[in-house]
């Protein structure tokens, strides 16, 4: 009870900044999930082929990864962090407002690249600021932070769904099957079968073919609504800047963290056990550095091979699981409207929302579960659950009910994989490695690469390959996790970790999420 009272006291003391950091992650979630259900309308709007529109996903994920690294530049002082959050959240609103005017796929990819940079910066800075404020008590606050990611990702497909066009923007003579505007991948394959010898895809983009009435403007309303919904977020950051007197040259009256640079923070002596009840100060954590600084740390020299093997295998697990999260969210809509399921596009539009909704629910449930279950056990259950779910979806690939149930199941199993893996990895390394940096990087690269890979295989091999890819990547994640357990048992530092420190570390690291 004493710990709960201390945490609630910290929350009351830092209520406004905490709410602000939670709100910017709502912007992150709002921007991460809208591409999947609006992909067909955006393809018609830009008169682009499937391979061309796929680069929009790649540009967003690549710049998200770059933005995460860029965010480390703004973490040294509170003023830099808040101005970075203000600029990033405002940029997301601007992106939503500009998307309806992007009539060329290259322009759209550039705009989504800007959104990716903003999202990556938010991801790094908001996480870091909450850790700096609450330190070892940050677990619950960061779980709530990433709950807002799921909430935003749940909301954006629901906003877009009523505005998805039912009109077919493809030329009437381009395919033998134009009865359903939603069968994007089927249309691409039919076009390839009947016309690839005469005209390659690059010559079949729909230049000069305007979308049918309302096809472009209806989905535009969804983007403008999301821009308006997101607009209070940069205003909240601006309010916090004003409260901290950072809008002028006046010195801030109540700093949320020391303004010393990272080098000075690293040389500070460890804080006492009750340091989190004092005014928030940041004590440098090696796992929170940027990748370049982390790799330069002198204490990595002479480390056993198991130290590096744990970093690599853990990152590969998240490469697969986070990559599956991004790929499934992006392509489950297109898979549903394709044969053999042929789900109506209005019904299929609920699948991304269902997926992110159960990710959000899973993150809420993981808060009490993580205090009673070891991180290694949670990761094992999650990875096995992902593999089993994809196998069931593959066996019952003709059943729409199983698709919806499987989508919800995947959301639950994938929701807590990242924080549980991070908790287990940090615990294995006694909080002396670069687990946070390496794992976040691995997860980001996985989201970028697997989306492109799954999209390419989907187009070339058909809808059935979507579930086959899920089974393969899930099995790879399980294999890498077994290797991680093996290297953990061989790591020489394992016996020296005090039980109390291990339990505290599990609670802290369990809160990180992509």
From TrEMBL:
Pfam families: MFS_1 (PF07690). Its main location: membrane. The keyword Transmembrane applies. One of its GO terms (cellular component) is membrane. This is Major facilitator superfamily domain-containing protein 4A. The chain crosses the membrane at residues 21-40, 52-74, 81-101, 107-126, 138-160, 221-241, 307-335, 347-365, 377-396, 402-424, 436-458, 464-487. It is found in: Membrane. InterPro entries: MFS, MFS_trans_sf. Belongs to the major facilitator superfamily. It is a multi-pass membrane protein. Keywords: Membrane, Transmembrane, Transmembrane helix. CDD domains: MFS_MFSD4A. GO terms for molecular function: transmembrane transporter activity.
């Amino acid at each position: 009870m004493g710990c709960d009272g201390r945490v609630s006291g910290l929350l009351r003391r830092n209520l406004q900044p905490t709410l602000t950091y939670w709100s910017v992650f709502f912007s992150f979630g709002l921007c991460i999930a809208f591409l999947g259900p609006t992909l067909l309308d955006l393809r018609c709007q830009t008169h682009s082929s499937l391979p061309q529109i796929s680069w929009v996903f790649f540009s967003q994920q690549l710049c998200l990864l770059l933005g995460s690294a860029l965010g480390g530049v703004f973490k040294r002082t509170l003023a830099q962090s808040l101005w970075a959050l203000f600029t990033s959240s405002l940029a997301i609103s601007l992106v939503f407002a500009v998307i309806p005017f992007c009539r060329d796929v290259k322009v759209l990819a550039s705009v989504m690249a800007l959104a990716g940079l903003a999202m990556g910066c938010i991801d790094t800075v908001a996480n870091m600021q909450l850790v700096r404020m609450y330190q070892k008590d940050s677990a619950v606050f960061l779980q709530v932070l990433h709950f807002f990611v799921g909430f935003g990702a749940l909301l954006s497909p629901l906003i877009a769904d009523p505005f998805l066009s039912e009109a077919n923007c493809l030329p009437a003579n381009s395919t033998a099957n134009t009865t359903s505007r939603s069968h994007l991948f089927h249309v691409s394959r039919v076009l390839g079968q009947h016309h690839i010898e005469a005209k390659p895809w690059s010559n079949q983009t729909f230049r000069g073919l305007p979308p049918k009435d309302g096809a472009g403007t209806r989905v535009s309303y969804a983007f403008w609504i999301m821009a308006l919904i997101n607009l209070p977020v940069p205003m909240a950051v601006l309010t916090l800047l004003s409260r901290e007197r950072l809008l002028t040259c006046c010195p801030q009256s109540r700093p949320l963290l020391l303004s010393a640079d990272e080098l000075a923070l690293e040389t500070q002596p460890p804080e006492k056990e009750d340091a989190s009840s004092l005014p928030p100060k940041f004590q440098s954590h090696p796992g929170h550095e940027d990748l370049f600084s982390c790799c330069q740390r002198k204490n990595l020299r002479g480390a056993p091979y198991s130290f590096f093997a744990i970093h690599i295998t853990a990152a590969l697990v998240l490469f697969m699981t986070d990559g599956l999260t991004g790929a499934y969210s992006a392509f489950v809509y297109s898979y549903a409207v394709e044969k053999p399921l042929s789900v109506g596009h209005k019904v299929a539009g609920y699948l991304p929302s269902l997926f992110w909704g159960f990710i959000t629910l899973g993150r809420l449930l993981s808060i009490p579960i993580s205090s009673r279950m070891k991180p290694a056990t949670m990761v094992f259950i999650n990875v096995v659950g992902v593999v089993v779910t994809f196998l069931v979806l593959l066996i019952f690939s003709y059943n729409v009910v199983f698709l919806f149930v499987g989508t919800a199941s995947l959301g639950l199993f994938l929701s807590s994989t990242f924080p549980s893996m991070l908790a287990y990895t940090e615990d294995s390394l006694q909080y002396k490695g670069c687990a946070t940096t390496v794992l976040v990087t691995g997860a980001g690269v996985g989201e970028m690469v697997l989306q492109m890979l799954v999209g390419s295989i989907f187009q070339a091999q058909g809808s059935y390959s979507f579930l086959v890819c899920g089974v393969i990547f899930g099995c790879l994640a399980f294999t890498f996790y077994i290797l991680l357990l093996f290297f953990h048992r061989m790591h020489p530092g394992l016996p020296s970790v005090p039980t109390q420190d291990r339990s505290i570390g599990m609670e802290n690291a369990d809160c990180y999420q992509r």
